[in-house]
Amino acid sequence: MKETWRTAKKAVVFFEVEILDAKTKDKLCFLDKVEPNATIGEIKSMFHKSHPQWYPARQSIRLDPKGKSLKDEDVLQHLPVGTTATFYFRDLGAQISWVTVFLTEYTGPLVIYLMFYFRVPFIYAPKYDFTTSKHWVVHLACMCHSFHYVKRLLETLFVHRFSHGTMPLRNIFKNCTYYWGFAAWMAYYINHPLYTPPSKYTCTYFCQIGNFSIHVALRNLRPPGSKTRKIPYPTKNPFTWIFLLVSCPNYTYELGSWLGFTLMTQCLPVAFFTLVGFIQMTVWAKGKHRSYLKEFRDYPPLRSPILPFIL
Amino acid sequence: MSAAAPGTSKAAHSEVGPKKKKGPGALATAYLVIYNVVMTAGWLVIAVGLVRAYLARGSYHGLYYSIEKPLKFFQTGAILEILHCAVGIVPSSVVLTGFQVMSRVFLTWAVTHSVREVQSEDSVLLFVTAWTITEIIRYSFYTFSLLNHLPYLIKWARYTFFIVLYPMGVTGELLTIYAALPYVQKTGLYSVTLPNKYNFSFDYYTFLILVMISYIPLFPQLYFHMIRQRKKVLGHIEDYSKVE
Lengths: 311, 244
Known about the structure:
Number of strands of chain A: 6
Largest sheet of chain A: 4 strands, mixed
Shape of chain A: elongated
Radius of gyration of chain A: 25 Å
Number of helices of chain B: 8
Mean pLDDT of chain A: 84
Mean pLDDT of chain B: 88
Number of helices of chain A: 8
Strand content of chain B: under 5%
Largest sheet of chain B: none
Strand content of chain A: 5-15%
Structural class of chain B: mainly alpha
Largest interface: A-B, 11 and 8 residues
Strand order of the largest sheet of chain A: 2-1-4-3
Distance between the termini of chain A: 63 Å
Shape of chain B: globular
Helix content of chain A: 40-55%
Oligomer: heterodimer
């Protein structure tokens, strides 16, 4: 009944959608009577019905075989297509959710470090099994490292809002190798019976709290459930004042935390981990900074991507 | 690894058909031609040096010493190829080329040069011979390709000789590293032990073993990549009269 009322008011033009394979151009799916206000997300679900092995998260739908992927929120009638729309499909491969990846890659270092800290058998010489270090800095390092990863796990569960739900499955192996590998390498030396402690320690706490505040500030920018992007600005919290100078202060504080940890433990593997992390975060920060500049005309010009005035 | 870098030849690209999209400029081409000619000449010097030393001594033993200096010079010089990729005058992956060149440099300096006792091993001759023949063919291949006058014979040799030379080189390399192990363990070469103020340790002996193990996944991948390239490049027998 609703339908006849609608057609009486205004002729609704249904779309036809054909989906072709981006590489072979084979016709994979034909959908008729598609609502003009259907979203790409809905079309993906329809495509999934006819091809159950390609769940929506692994579908890349584009207007051009070599073009960019369309977003799930894009509406059919607002796209530059005729009433018979042709889309191209690429399989992104098996996908895994960001949350799963983050939880796995962060739980590893937490558990692994503790195994070395408690000197579980088969790591060091048997006479040291289940002994503890006599250096207080080793205990402090364990607390800092554990706090860092517990914080990250809690942030993943309760704070972060992700703009993409999934990533390719192989990333979990790559990421876990990196985090778990480095955690084991650092923990081995810090908790070693022959560890040589430094003569003083530094402000690793300061930076960890700063890092957390940034994550909370960024979370508050994004209304729950949405994927909108806004320019982050400093708030009353002093730790967010660094937004005046830097686009990605979470990375700045992260670097600060690991620098502090390096100085505190005076351990070369920790320095390597800090360096590799810094390089990766700089790449990410520069990318983020560039997309902020592209997206917002009035982006504050004083800001640098990660290091105030420098980088 | 002793194989010629599979990705560095223009003909090794996956697209079939004309591919002169955005090659190096005239100056870069001139430089590359000179570079490749010099490298071809250098490895020919090493080849001649080996042959002459063999004829003079009458045995395969200890020929390394007769070509030690040019080997070090020209193999180390190949580091420039990483730069060529980074700068963009050669359309290859920096990472892949870097890996190939550094593994050769590693064997030349960190194994053969550093552990004197292995220099008289026959395994050294095995990989040096494989490298020499491979590089002479590879560099002349690049030279001719750049000048757009690639004789089919060179193309054929580049994509065929590796079938024997690659395993030969890998065998020589592995045997040499294996021969170096006892001396590295005994002298603690390049190793750092605890305790020390950097809280760091490195065992070169274990590292060399890991390097040997890494050949197991890496060698087949590179080898079969070359075999696939061979099918692609030489598969078109009917085009043999067409010059690259």
